[in-house]
User: Fold this.
Amino acid sequence: DKAFGERAKDIIEAADRLGVGSLKVEAEGWYVKSTLIKLSNFAENLHLSDTKKCALLKEKVMEFLVENEEEALCFLSENHDVPQSESMLTDFL
Assistant:
């Protein structure tokens, strides 16, 4: 179980690429359980949730953003190298 949680992001990406939806959903669940969303990783996780269509992960990131809106906006304005998807800022605002 622990090893699966540590590799969950890689499994999400592989399952998405190969079209194995059930594995992707399972891996997403493990990833959400094992990942602490924080300022240093929220943009990357929101990008992952958007590009791989991971609803649970997106919900977790959005909850973080609601609770930390001011800090997150400041972080985004100061860090131009964070991964962003087309809908990321729309979702956030």
Remarks:
- The chain has a mean pLDDT of 86.
